[in-house]
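ARCHIVE RECORD
Type: protein–small molecule complex
Small molecule: magnesium ion
Source of inputs: curated submission
Record status: active
Notes field left blank by submitter.
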Amino acid sequence: MSTLVLDIGTYSIKAIAGKAGPKPKIERIAEVFNTTGIAVPTDDVNQDKLINLIESVIVDNDLPRTDVRLSLPESVISSKVIEIPPLSDAELASAIGWQAEQHIPIPPEELALEYQVLYRPPKSEKRPMRIMLIGARKQVVDRYVDMFHALGIEPSLVETHMLSLVRSLMFTAEDPNTMVVHIGASSMNMAVVRQGEIAFVTSHMNGGQLLTKALEKSVGLDQDQAEKYKRTYGLDETQFQGKVAQAILPGIQVLSNEIKKSVQFFGTQFPNESVQRVVLSGGTASMPNLVQFIAQELGTEVLVAAPFTGVEGTVPETINPPAMGVCMGLLLREL
Ligand SMILES: Nc1ncnc2c1ncn2[C@@H]1O[C@H](COP(=O)(O)OP(=O)(O)OP(=O)(O)O)[C@@H](O)[C@H]1O
Ligand SMILES: [Mg+2]
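STRUCTURE (tokenized, with ligand):
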């Protein structure tokens, strides 16, 4: 049976059809501009627009409607990693609602809650267990899933961007402390992965779109031109008299400062440790000279996510690999 994974972003809808599991195979892959600019509908009008768009992506690319897997953007998620004394699964299930009330800023009657045990100490040790609470508003999740019902699809999985993304990066417990920085069009999501485990997730409501807008204004380009110039010259000061780089720089600085804040937050959580490397992901990760810029700002090694490494199937040249991490993480999951 074929699987369909979907990442509906504000800039583009990404889809992969293929064989799911730890040894995935890509059969078809598509990236379609999101003409609605909406990732999560909030009313009937934009819900209908998005339904029509998703339907055309499915039909135009001959994508399956079986085993459809979705990932919600962090912008509608409230997640928190907490430490509590070790509990059995049953005890945890009954205690979790109360924990959520302490840590998730959504009223209980409106809350759709999931949780994941990140770490459970061996019985002989008196250390706390670590749990990731993942909350969203029921109304939001219901509306999201309803879009797929309207398309004759019963989603087999709905998780969150960071869980999908971190899976696609295949961390091991031996990896150095790594900050994952996912820069899309309208958001930037960050997580630190420590000993192969998510230490925390944060998000910021700005992304690549901020840079395109700045370029439109300061150099006087239309949106398409600005998009092209950004992709071609990025932060390269030696190109186009440095005009593109200069226009983009203030926006990049905003993003970079947010990354620094998250690095500092990690330092307060784990005082004897530091972030040793950064992995850039999301469409913006491909911007010329961004790697060098972030490396200089943070003083760490910076890598760009390569979610297709070792994966069976062909990926067209038009696909920007770091933008496909969420999809690959969904495809890698074993149900
Ligand atoms: N080569 C490139 N250089 C610079 N920016 C790029 C490049 N390729 C794509 N982008 C930018 O990346 C963004 C799209 O990335 P992505 O597909 O991850 O966003 P999205 O998932 O649709 O958005 P979001 O998750 O924020 O809703 C756009 O702002 C686009 O301009
Ligand atoms: Mg995205």
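CURATOR ANNOTATION: The domain at 171-304 is CATH 3.30.420.40 (Nucleotidyltransferase; domain 5).
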